[in-house]
Amino acid sequence: MTTRIFCRVCDGDVEEFVDFGRQPVSNAFVVPGEEDSEYFFPLAVGACSSCHMVQLVEEVPRERMFHQDYPYLSSGSVLMRNHWERTAKSFLSTELTGDDPFVVELGCNDGVLLETIAHSGVRHLGVEPSGGVADIAAGKGIRVRKDFFEESVAARIREQEGPADVVFAANTLCHIPYIGSVLRGVRDLLSENGVFVFEDPYLGDIVDRTSFDQIYDEHFYFFSAHSVRETARLHSLELVDVERLPVHGGEVRYTLAPAGSRTPSEAVAGLLAEEAASGLTLPATLTAFGERVERIRADLRALLTRLRDEGSRVMAYGATAKSATVLNHCGIGPDLVECVVDTTPAKQGRLTPGSHIPVVPADRFGAPYPDHVLLLAWNHAEEIMAKEEGFRAAGGQWITYVPEVRVTGS
């Protein structure tokens, strides 16, 4: 007898369409010798037949993912630092121009966006549960509350600070299974004409590009205009604007407002129509995505096995959270990839979750160069390849797997 899977948004029926098997916590990089202590969970994803929300079938306890030693820093990429600065300046010239404006950011990380707003003198608050990165933000002069944002926390913020003109979240809302509590909190925290703006990986881009490694423990939801519109409606909010973004392999910035307070832009109707035309909400589209994932899995494993058997040296570049999915689902370990180069000190000297490939600092990359590099941080390909021009000049070749397995270089 099949167990019914309930939608975390509307309590509808969720139909699973791809299963990545047993997976580790994606950012839990392992101290050598402590491999036996890892936590694993079944990673599978499905879609609700009622509200169309695509979501993980099983939730990982939030304390296992977001904690004092959480290693990801939002300011680690020049490209992304520029993106956050532009976003902050946009808010300062539009939504934050009134008398004593107030902005709250959910999951502010190391404060890369709020830093610009703080320097402008605008009242702000970051809500960040991961203590280490919250401390970095506070060290920049940013007001930070160490907490998980939910309905009760929102009530306390409003009581202490008053209503917010903007609530913002970037690559955060998709992490939160208890989205109903978050949206009720947002609705109560917003001023009458306030907006909730969030940006997250876009389901349409994940499906189009078969970027299956966007599916990992931290990404519980995979948003589309259809699912966001329905989720907002259930919480007295309305989808009033959308904007496609090129960052992180394709995202959408969604703007929600209290229902009836603003007129939806033409962009909302446009993206809804585009999704309908592409069949994004149809089960057959998602099933086909799962089939393409398995082809990439077979092709990548076959390529790396052949290179090993031919005596080619293969490294990987970027110890990303999403690389946990591709490395573990494809069965890629230190027998196929000798190490992963990464600039994050907290990851160096450790092993990749589940697959146990050593993570080494950047100065190991050119001493000497390998023959091939598996680009795990493919969403930063342009920035990385420009930085590592010496690798290509030395005859090295990059291996990518989105949207298909390719070898490029000399």
Automatic annotation (TrEMBL):
Entries under CDD domains matching the protein: AdoMet_MTases
SUPFAM superfamilies registered for this protein in UniProt: S-adenosyl-L-methionine-dependent methyltransferases
Ranges of residues in domain C-methyltransferase: 246-403
Residue intervals of the Methyltransferase putative zinc binding domain: 7-66
Family annotation (InterPro entries): Methyltransf_Zn-bd_dom_put (IPR013630), Methyltransf_Zn-bd_dom_put_sf (IPR038576), MeTrfase_14 (IPR013691), SAM-dependent_MTases_sf (IPR029063)
Pfam families, per database record: Methyltransf_13 (PF08421), Methyltransf_14 (PF08484), Methyltransf_23 (PF13489)
Signal peptide (UniProt feature, chain positions): none
Protein name in the entry: Methylation protein EvaC
